[in-house]
Fold this sequence. Notes:
heterodimer; A: alpha/beta; Ribosomal Protein S5, domain 2; seven-stranded mixed β-sheet; B: alpha/beta; Rossmann fold; nine-stranded mixed β-sheet; two-stranded antiparallel ribbon; 9 helices
Amino acid sequence: xxxxxGPEPLSVSRLGPAISTEALDFSSTADLPATEGWLGQRRAVxxxxxxASVPYxxxxxxxxxxxxxxxxxxxxxxxxxxxxxxxxxxxxxYVNNFEAPHKPIAIELPAGSANKLRKLMETLxxxxxxxxxxxxxxxxxxxxxxxxxxRYSSEHEAEMAExxxxxxxxxxxxxxxxxxxxxxxxxxxxxxxQEQYExxxxxxxxxxxxxxxxxxxxxxxxxxxxPKREKEHRNQVEQLNYSLANDGVNDAIAEVTTAFSEHTPVxxxxxxxxxxxxxxxxxxxxxxxxxxxxxxxVATTKHYAKPQFQRYCVxxxxxxxxxxxxxxxxxxxxxxxxxxxxxxxYASEMGTLVTNFTMIKPGALHRANGGYLVLDVRQxxxxxxxxxxxxxCLRTGEISIYSxxxxxxxxxxxxLTPDPVSLNVRVILIGERPHYYLLSxxxxxxxxxxxxxxxxxxxxxxxxxxxxxxxxxxxxDLARQAGTRALDAAAVVRLMNESTRxxxxxDRLTLNTGSLSDLLREAEYWARSxxxxxxxxxxxxxxxxxxxxxxxxxxxxxxxxxxxxxxxIDTDGHRAGQINALSVLxxxxxxxxxxxxxxxxxxxxxxxxxxxxxETELGGPIHSKxxxxxxxxxxxxxxxxxxxxxxxxLVFEQSYGGVDGDSASAAELIALLSSLAEAPIDQSFAITxxxxxxxxxxxxxxxxxxxxxxxDVCDERGLTGRQGVLIPDANVRNLSLRRRVVDAVDQxxxxxxxxxxxxxxxxxxxxxxxxxRGEDGAFPRHSLNFRVEERLTEFAEIRRSFARAPDTNVSEx
Amino acid sequence: xxxxxxxxxxxxxxxCDAESTLELxxxxxxxVGAELxxxxxxxxxVLYSVNQLQARTVSYSGLRSATVTADTLLxxxxxxxxxxxxxxxxxxxxxxxxxSFEEIEGSLTDVLRTQAGNGDIIVLGYKTMFDQDGxxxxxxxxxxxxxEFAINxxxxxxxxxxxxxxxxxxxDIVATEAAKLGTTAIVRAYDTSNALIASLExxxxxxxxxxDHSPGSPMIARxxxxxxxxxxxxxxxxxxxxxxxxxxxxxxx
Lengths: 813, 253
């Protein structure tokens, strides 16, 4: 092994978090007390508590956080706690508007009264349906009715009798003809025949004519009086009916009126009901045939359910019950417009859509009125018109029900315009950060309504000795909630280590309780399989291993291709212009690292650096940016006294998909320098890191996966002890490597080097010092930079020589 | 030997009388299984008198019309006859009855007397001034046998039954008889024809059934004038009510 001239490899202790069981003073999580489970979320909890208790109508809250951060559970827990302290809100009902049926009336009632009113109204209808027919069939009514009828007909009959009697007395026959009553002479109860009439004297004829004339006149007067008498008769019957119905309705409605005597809107409704019932008493008189009524006596029939009595129904929108259980906390998982603001249903009758106030259905806003409504912002935004409706309700403080079809002008049918219901609700939207930022930027109403942001932290800093015990308690709570067995201390530590890996920082623990809970339940499976009483470290380890194995098909295929030589990756030997770069592939919920061969070729040119990935449109913008930074470094470091006369090309070999990110820019730079200096690179190493224009190595993502990806390739081929990975020094704090890698490093079979500058990487990979410019402005003679600059100067000279000889041309293909 | 079917003969002087009585006649015909026959009678005397007297008519709503001529009245009769025939035919079809119709000149009572055969039921059409809710009045005279068709008719029409008797001694018998047939009747007695007429004049009856008069009785026209409602007369039957109910044909030799 050559003498090391670069940075020292990292010790085992720096390859993962330094968490041990010594920080924990329990043997199993069963010993730990249950907590609220809000560890590390003080900021969000504070915002939520404020939103839950401030009285201002526009202090709704937006909960930001990653899925799995416990946003829903914590929000529900805080709201439930706040709801208990609030009084139970009132009930809401819709009743018929007798004057304008298309505008049903909304009435707020004391909590628990809605169903009482509904039942009393049903009883009222049932009572009247039984009592009114009895009243109208009573002997008293029949007798009074008969008196009216008889008076009416007898007066007419008497007058008609008088007409006929007088006519008969004056020998006038009244004959019914198609044109009405006709008149003729009469003799011995027989109409006069022609010859009999002609035999009459002139005087007799004159007398007969006069009698006929008078009879006509008299009869006409009697008949003309009929309509007037009929109207009078009708009025008398109506008055009788009204009076009887009035008595019956007043008796029956008294119970409801008394029960709601203190409630003005209900009293007004009952007044309208009373008038309508009296005016439409015939509704209660239509009796069914015995057969149709079924085997039950009429008294047990649910008359209120009949269509003709729907007008008296009470449509209960919200019934909060009588017990003071606090304000409602409603979560609507499917916030369609109808589920949010309620809907008006329709029934098809004879091909026409009809509706009435009983078909108004409540939405989540009705149910949550007076309490809290929890909504998933993505669901609200993805449902047509829901977001707009929610904002309108919150802005106006009312719930107005309308149908989307009507709103869009797509439906044309008779509909309702129900009274809006006054709204007093606290809405909690739960979403992810991009939703919050996008809404803030794009919707001017959003900040006006959702004034409080409850930002759930993703991690917990290990900055205190109390953090680890508290985190252990969190794990204990998760185990209890998940119903797993308890964990021993070592398992808790192992879980914490995994937590730091999930977090990507050895000094931080993830607060994504969803992921931890998943892992716990998988570990529970393995613990149960092994018959253990507690979940141990091995169970956690196995859960992690199995999880990676399950998701490892693609990774295994990649490894196989490398081992077979299909994908060409060297893990030993030296070669100029060729380097092992590292990339991370994210597939589904897993990610894994894989080495890629990166090569550089150089020759004289006009200062052009060709990124083949970009030229073929396989490189992403960040990758291109890294390439341009690399160019900046080259130009500023080497071509200071001569034009940059370089043509170079860089490519990820055997890469047929897209490449993005700048984590290979250090590898690209070193490969390029290696090519220029013709200094072979040790293929035992892989490198990751981005470089800036000064040659500093900057942090990259997925460092653990990248190291493990190269380790696995080397491990399969056999670790030589020379192999290793170069990573940015800034990424050392992100290391939380798998046990197999740590063990190999511990045994001296694998190495991990931190780099601060590109010079560190050059030294390790080429065995040459990079070299710094001396006082004379030149690099040290045996340094790599000297060789690079010398080569570039040669290129410049070549280019200059071509410039002097106009006949000669340099082609750049 | 030929079987002759019992008939319900509905006679009227105008369509409105016929139309308002047709349902009643149909019910009767259904009950006894009879043929339904319609007669529209042109009152000859009126045709003559309107010409001679330059008479005017008074419509049923009390309007006095301009002078009526025999010609216009004749056209009105013909028009009413067409309507009557059509309506009768459809009503009979709806009730699965046989029907016939005739338009005749003469006096209504005379025509009916000549047309009616033994066992036929004569119905004199009359449009009442109001929708009558009054009783069915059964004039029994001195008879004591209740005509069962009258009881059934009362029950079918859901009306009260008033029975008028000339012999007060039969009151209890008739009331008991009616009760046996499932009807509670109000039974009253009258002593003279004038009393009967006065009683009918005061009662706004739905229909009057004359059990003791034949179609040829001179009282028929007077009673119709007094009742001012449909009048039902049963001719001498020679067959029982049971036969009538069953619609049994009678033999005509």
